[in-house]
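Following up on my earlier thread - several people asked me to post the actual chain instead of describing it. Fair enough. Here it is, all 171 residues.
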Amino acid sequence: MIRELADYEHELSSVEATEESLTRTLSLAPSAASSHTNPGHAKCIMLRLPAEPTSPTDVPGAVAGMALYFHNYSTWNGKQGIYLEDLFVRPQYRKRGYGKLLIQALARENLLKDGGRLEWSCLDWNEPSLQFYRSLGAVEMKGWTKLRVDGEALQKLAMGDIPPLTGEAPK
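Reply from S.P.:
Thanks for posting it. Predicted structure:
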């Protein structure tokens, strides 16, 4: 599903995750049916179709969607929260309310742990998803810019191989 999501976002060539890296770093969200014991750095809720699907083309128990998330913390409200890293519902299962079910499950988990907020990012060109998120009551965080350091820049930063601060913005 990660590859399907990356393909949808036009970033398939950027996927580096492997089955081994996911097994080492991810855990399935707690459920009565889950026997997965890896605490993981992130959790994943998998949404499966019912054993008796309503559509004749559906495969019973097929994975329809996922929500991959981790816990974050707000210093301002002094509470943990949930950061939704990826929400994905396979195209053939969209418009059935599955995305809403996944986000509602995260909201419930957050409240059960006295969490303060549920956050995520969305590509600015992804208007169908933005409309969906707005319909759930989500608001865009105007005035905030998402920043990231990865790859070679992360290596350089860790090693202190960065230019001295001169008061000018880097080029």
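Residues 2-143 form a domain with the Aminopeptidase fold (CATH 3.40.630.30). That should answer part of your original question.
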